[in-house]
Amino acid sequence: LCSRLKILLLLHCLLFTSKMPALTILEIHEKSFEINFTNFSSVLDKVPDLPIVIISLNGCMREGKSYIHSYFMRYLKNEGRPHWFESVLADNEMFSWRSGSTRETVGINIWSEPFITQQNGRDVAVLLLDCQGLFDPSTTYAQNAAIYAFSSLLSSVMIYNVKTKIEEDLLQKILLFSDYTDSISSKNPEHQDTKPYFLFLLRDFEFVEEFDYGFHNKKERPKRELENPGNYFDKIFTNTEEIHDKNQAVRVAIQNRYKDIGMFVMPHPGGKFIRDSRKNPPEQDFQNLLKELVVHIMSHLVTKRIGKEEVSGKSFKTTVKHWADLCKDSNFPVAETFAETTTRLQNDQASTMAIETFKMKYTRILYSDHSGVSDEEFRKTYPPLLKEVIETYKSSRSLGGEDLVADYVSKLTEKCELYFEEHCLALNAANRKIKEQKLSQEEERKKLEQARLEAENKFNKLQAAFRVVELLSTTLNKGFDMAIAARKAKNVKHLKPLMNFMSYE
After folding, report:
1. Is 25 helix (H, G, I), strand (E, B) or coil?
2. How far is CA 87 from CA 15, 74, 202, in A?
3. Per-residue pLDDT tens over the stretch 40-80
4. Which ranges of the sequence are coiled-coil (predicted)?
5. Can you say how many angstroms the Cα of residue 120 is from the centroid of all Cα atoms in its chain?
6. Strands (E) located in 419-475
7. How confident is the model at residue 286 (pLDDT cuts 50, 70, 90)?
8. Residue 139, SS3 per DSSP
């Protein structure tokens, strides 16, 4: 019996430790796609009130995306402490990864536990997405599009893993799939800083004689070994006469879809690592740059937004549910479909919040001294409050054009007017009646009080008269008693003072 128990315990431990806490959120089937809302919401429910940062890694298959993710986890689990890079993670503490030609990740996986970290002095929740490698022989173009499109919709920090160099066809694909990012971003130029962050991660970089390893963007470049290193961002994105007009337009469009675009250039990890990554670490240069890459990403966290509005775990859950419903068909929806449904959802939420604000403010008025006035006076509260509520709606949405906003403002006005006419005016009239009843009761109370005071005054006067009569009666009785006593004593000299006293009284 003891031997059997030991075997069962061993099996349990093996099953537990081999279970990977990564959850599939985009399932790829042979002829369909499915967003696993249950898995996604189980993660979002753990951080309902925190802003969320969603970091995704995309790129072609078997290029080490899951391996890179393992170092993000090291950093986050160790909260950036000095020796985070050297920490060891068990297999069940990171996304599954391995060498070889066979794909490891299928669809899109999310790490089941959010990581709480600091951004600008506040707590944010970091969610990590591991995406299936694109353009493998087993994946159709439609499936590739779905993987990239959905990761674009979700990500606030998007990393695209590419080998050796950036080519023109890659930029074309980035632009195509970035339509999904653009579909849920505000078109207002003032909201440019609310868009996602995009980073090209260049592995096994070719042009080492021209460009140093490290981070390049439109403002900076690394300076390591080369005397006059170039800026690879400028090489790819700066418009020059050498670039065809159509290709220039592609570059401009890509940059308009993101808050910022960077490039991180890295060397080859080494032949030993490629042959057996479990036994051999990457070469030291690769490790040093990998550490720099992780620190760069963690210092450039961007929270997820819909339009310009920052989302929390709770609010993003509603959006993901709508997206999951859209994907119940066999075809992954085009960007315009996501744009339309997300725009409607955001405006619906903003309108609902505005109406609730309107109701809340009138509830306060109706329970205050400003209620119970005449209808004419009460109607004066409506125009400024309606204006305030419309501004609340407009400030709470950032998707949709002027025609859509005008439509929502019209409907919002109708709903507010109906609520005011049927609810607020009726309650004000009821409060006025109560006030009138209270006033009538107060007047009646005053009359009763006045009558009571008058009766009390009369009673006091009667009491005073009774006291005078009582005093006279006592005095007379006293005089008569003296007279009777004197008569009995036949003492005339006592009688005269008595008569004089009685005459005086």
Report:
1. strand
2. 24, 7, 25
3. 999 999 999 999 999 999 887 555 688 888 899 999 999 98
4. 427-465
5. 16
6. none
7. very high
8. coil
Q: How far apart are CA 504 and CA 480, in angstroms?
A: 14
Which residue shows structure tokens 């391996």?
67
Gap between the Cα atoms of 12 and 148, Å rounded: 37
Q: At a CB cut-off of 8 Å and minimum separation 6, what does 62 contact? A: 100, 101, 103, 133
CB 333 within 8 A of CB 34: no
| Burial category of 161 from C-beta neighbours within 10 Å (exposed 0-12, middle 13-18, buried 19 and up) | buried
Provide the pLDDT for residue 245: 83
Longest dimension (CA), the chain: 158
Pairing verdict, β 305-306 and 108-111? unpaired
Question: pLDDT for 273-285, tens place per residue?
Answer: 888 877 889 999 9
Nearest alpha-carbon partner for 309 in 42, 40, 37, 52? 52
Is the CA virtual torsion 258, 263, 264, 270 positive or negative? positive
The number of CA neighbours under 13 Å toward the Cβ of 328 is: 7
What distance in Å separates the CA atoms of residue 107 and residue 332, rounded to the nearest whole number? 13
- Whether residue 264 is predicted with pLDDT greater than 50 in this model: the reply is yes
Task: Give the Å distances, CA to CA, from 342 to 182, 319, 337, 398, 488.
Answer: 12, 7, 8, 11, 123
Tell me the percentage of the chain whose pLDDT exceeds 90.
Answer: 48
Please name every residue paired with 264 in a beta bridge, in sequence order, or none if there are none: 201, 215
Tokens encoding 303: 């929270």
How far apart CA 489 and CA 495 sit, in angstroms, is: 10
Q: DSSP H helical segments within 155-204, as ranges?
A: 168-183
For helices 335-366 and 382-395, give the axis angle rounded to 10 degrees. 150
3-state secondary structure (DSSP) of residue 319: helix
